[in-house]
Write a structure and sequence with these properties.
It is an enzyme of class 2 (transferase). The chain is of the alpha+beta class and 690 residues long. Helix content is 41%, strand content 11%. A hairpin with a 4-residue loop joins β13 and β14.
Length: 690
């Protein structure tokens, strides 16, 4: 009997020893496995915490003009930009031990397991904020063991690599609050119409209760359920001594106003401009499309909302609603190249094709200022004369002959000055100048002014037969408006990532690309299109809008059978307008031929309203003299028309006009020499002497 008892005892000791060994091995394996998981998690490093967020676009004064939209509203804000009441309310209802655990609340897990066991069902959750954040970032919400294991692994990685405040900030910026609002900022704006930093205790407690069941606890779905959960959160905060009894009571009694609207409108301001901005983010800043659309960027642009509204208003009012004609419109600040307004078509919803940046159209006579600038550089002056008459140009290199025509086939059939030629837009004068300078000269000058499209070296290039874009033409004219300094079109001044860190900031560089005196002389010649003193065999090209303008402008119009242009400027603003049909249909009605000039004139007046009237400042290397516009010679008191005209110093005319001396002023042959000398005007004597 004793022998049997002893054997049983020894057998029990043996089993216990084996069990202890197996248990020890098991514990060791678990510890090794846990250590391995920790090491592996450490080797993998911090998991990326980026989440899809709306990118926001702002005008030059900080007004929100649009956002990327993928069905989710997300706006990342720093933890200190979220009301402390919302932070505490969230911790109170979701994870009161957040700052004391390492990702897992073992006490809470045990309590939840016991509750589930008693109810024989899943009745209580035990997920910490870290676990929820890991699930929201990396996993779906299916209830499987695989998901739970992955959730635990990602929770470890997050806790090992990020601070508690970083985790809490990320959680509050990614949690779903219903109605398409992700994160505290979007939810605050949607439910209460205010920033997350401005929430009251009552609002914070109600907002913190929604993520548990967005469709169940939303005040828009059931104010009763939302309020009951709000009261639970307030009582929990009071129990934890995070708020006082008085604060809890006051918050409980506060009547809340629910907005229920996303404050950032989905409707875009200046949609063509915003598309151009996205193109610049991709092609200039080299950001990928995912970052542009979902990276939570804050993009600060050059758009002036007042000028944009003026552009859209004038286009709508001045263009016949029944017309199918299209438009490309760009306004630029010539000092820095900032694009202030842009319209790429009559209706963005019907056609998002941007005719201001994408369409390549013939510029017509708006190319002539480039040509005449080059001519000024090579010694021509506003008084240089050529004969305006129907001319056929023949060439020796088997190139076909070329016969340019003036508008309506009108010609002076006599010598005219360059100043008058640009004001009347004489085509024969332009082609003669172009061929004299050499076809390469105009191409190189256009490139110097920022024209990037390929231009054909042909005689007709002087008349704008080679296509260009509206944006680059507006930018090219900016070189005249700013005195010859290099500018490029600028759409974006600064870009911040979702944390507010600046990832791009525009920095301007000053470079003189045109001779200031030649640029000014060309600019002053361009004011002639609005000066009836230069009327000749036809009226100046700006004659139809002269009564619509109230300040000094320089500009040039242009037209082909299928395109109408007007580009003009002051020292403060350059605006280019193109009108035409997408398919190259001829522009035939008189009204449609006037749209470009009218839109330009009305916009410039509206955009510059209240701004000082500035004239173009003459450089020191220029000289202004009064001339007879017809002959280009120095005007005398006998000339019926005198116009102040500027020249590069040293190229101004020295010969006086003698065409208007009357016969009775001339000395008779019979009079004595002394009397003859008395009758001769002083300027004629000067001419005789010279």
């Amino acid at each position: 009997m004793e022998l049997m008892t002893d054997q049983r005892f020894r057998r029990t000791i043996k089993y216990l020893r084996a069990l202890l060994i197996v248990g020890s091995i098991g514990v060791a394996l678990v510890l090794i496995l846990y250590a391995g998981i920790l090491i592996y998690a450490k080797i993998l490093g911090p998991p990326p915490l980026s989440v899809p967020q709306s990118s926001l676009y702002y005008s030059d004064d900080g007004t929100l003009i649009g956002e990327s939209h993928n069905g989710q509203k997300r706006y990342w804000v720093a933890l200190d930009e979220i009301a402390p009441e919302l932070v505490d309310a969230t911790l109170a209802i979701e994870d009161r031990s957040f700052y004391n655990h390492h990702g897992f609340d073992l006490k809470r897990i045990a309590g939840a397991a016991l509750a589930d066991l008693k109810a024989l069902d899943k009745v209580q959750g035990a997920s910490t904020i870290s676990q929820q954040y890991a699930r929201n970032l990396f996993l779906e919400h299916e209830k499987t063991w695989k998901r739970k294991l992955l959730e635990a692994f990602y929770t470890l990685r997050i806790e090992m690599n990020y601070s508690k405040n970083e985790i809490l900030e990320g959680y509050l910026n990614t949690i779903y609050y219903g109605e398409g609002a992700y994160g505290a900022e979007a939810a605050s704006q949607f439910y209460f119409g205010k920033h997350a930093s401005d929430l009251s205790l009552a609002e914070a407690a109600m907002l913190a209760g929604i993520p548990k069941g967005p469709t169940y606890y939303s005040p828009l779905t059931s104010m009763e359920k939302a309020t009951n959960r709000q009261q639970l959160i307030l009582q929990t905060m009071k129990k934890e001594k995070w708020i006082s009894e008085e604060e809890a009571t006051a918050a409980s009694n506060q009547k809340l106003e629910i907005t229920g609207e996303h404050t950032h409108s989905v409707t875009k301001i200046a949609p063509y401009f915003q598309d151009a901005v996205k193109g610049a983010l991709k092609n200039v800043l080299h950001l990928d499309e995912k970052t542009i659309e979902l990276g939570g960027l804050r993009v600060y642009t050059t758009l002036d909302t007042k000028q944009q509204e003026a552009a859209e208003k004038n286009i709508e009012q001045l263009v016949d609603k029944d017309s199918d004609i299209q438009i490309g419109f760009v306004a630029i600040n010539p000092k820095n190249g900032y694009v202030k307004a842009m319209v790429g078509g009559r209706n963005y919803q019907e056609s998002p094709f941007n005719r201001a940046t994408q369409a390549v159209r013939q510029p017509g006579s708006t190319m002539k200022p480039f040509l005449y600038y080059a001519a000024i550089e090579q010694g021509f002056t506003p008084s240089t004369t050529m004969r305006s008459e129907l001319t056929t140009f023949r060439f020796d290199n088997n190139q076909p002959e070329y016969t340019p025509h003036n508008y309506n086939n009108l010609y002076a059939n006599e010598e005219i000055t360059m100043a008058q030629a640009i004001a009347l837009s004489d085509n024969v004068f332009a082609v003669k100048t172009h061929l004299f300078l050499g076809e390469e000269t105009l191409v190189e000058t256009a490139k110097k002014l920022g024209i990037s499209t390929d231009l054909q070296k042909v005689p007709s290039l002087a008349l704008g037969t080679s296509g260009v874009r509206v944006l680059e033409m507006a930018n090219a004219y900016s070189h005249f408006a700013n005195g010859g300094k290099k500018v490029t079109p600028v759409l974006i001044t600064r870009v911040e990532d979702h944390r507010g860190d600046v990832i791009y900031e525009y920095k301007s560089e000053s470079e003189q690309v045109l001779r200031p005196e030649a640029a000014f002389v060309t600019t002053h010649m361009m004011t002639g299109m609005f000066d009836r003193k230069l009327n000749g065999y036809t009226s100046v090209t700006g004659n139809t809008v002269i009564n619509d303008i109230t300040r000094i402008y320089a500009g040039k119009s242009g037209s082909t059978n299928t395109d109408n242009w007007m580009i003009g400027f002051t020292p403060q603003l350059v605006t280019a307008v193109w009108t035409g049909y997408d398919q190259g249909k001829p522009i035939e009605t008189v009204a449609e031929k006037t749209y470009a000039k009218k839109i330009w004139a009305h916009f410039m007046e509206d955009a510059l309203e209240g701004e000082p009237i500035k004239s173009f400042k003459a450089p020191k290397e220029t000289v202004g003299v009064y001339i007879n516009p017809e002959s280009g010679k120095l005007a005398t008191e006998d000339c019926p028309i005198q116009r102040l005209t500027y020249y590069v110093a040293g190229t101004e005319p020295t010969e006086y006009c003698t065409e208007h001396i009357t016969d009775d002023e001339a000395p008779s042959k019979e009079e004595p020499t002394k009397k003859k000398q008395e009758k001769v005007p002083w300027y004629k004597k000067l001419l005789d002497w010279s």
